[in-house]
Amino acid sequence: MWSRKNKKSKETKVEKRDISIHEVRKAVHAFADSKPKEVPLSVVIKEDLTLDYKLLAPYLKAVPVQNFYMSRETYELFEEQDKDLALDIDLIQQAVDEYIEQTQELPIIDDDPYKRISYYKLERRDLLHRRPNRDFYLTNEEFMITYKKPR
Questions:
Q1: Is the pLDDT confidence value at 110 over 70?
Q2: Separation of alpha carbons 110 and 104, rounded Å
Q3: 144 C-beta neighbours (distance < 10 Å), count
Q4: Which Pfam families match (predicted)?
Q5: Which of 7, 45, 75, 102 lies 20 to 30 angstroms, CA to CA, from 67?
Q6: 1-5, 12-16, 46-50: range with highest mean pLDDT
Q7: What mean pLDDT is predicted for residues 18-47?
Q8: Full residue range of the structural domain in which residue 49 is found
Q9: Could you tell me the pTM of the whole model?
Q10: In a domain, 30, yes or no
Q11: pLDDT for 13 beyond 90
């Protein structure tokens, strides 16, 4: 009587190919421009910080062979070899935000001209349970962090 349609028959197969980080960045921007305003960009980021290529496929016209990662906190895009950097950025940005909320102070090393994040201050408030193997710096943009040392 009633026939069920096979969901898999509706899904179109998208080819896998080598895609540059620049192409992925353009696809993310195109997705961001076309999504409804009430939908956050973070919907494109999976729990493990990989990208949801089903959402990006219409813009990429393919699925990347390699994985790309995006920070949920800063929306920076990273290649496979920099996965740990994406994880570290999210870890430190969350801790910095919480520290500022709790203390109304910046968690930077005292008198550091580069505004380097003080892991000690974050650990003292129990906001950091592991130290990254790199330094992070506070930018002038709404208390966002960066891994790039200011000049």
A1: yes
A2: 15
A3: 16
A4: DUF3939
A5: 7
A6: 46-50
A7: 95
A8: 13-70
A9: 0.83
A10: yes
A11: no
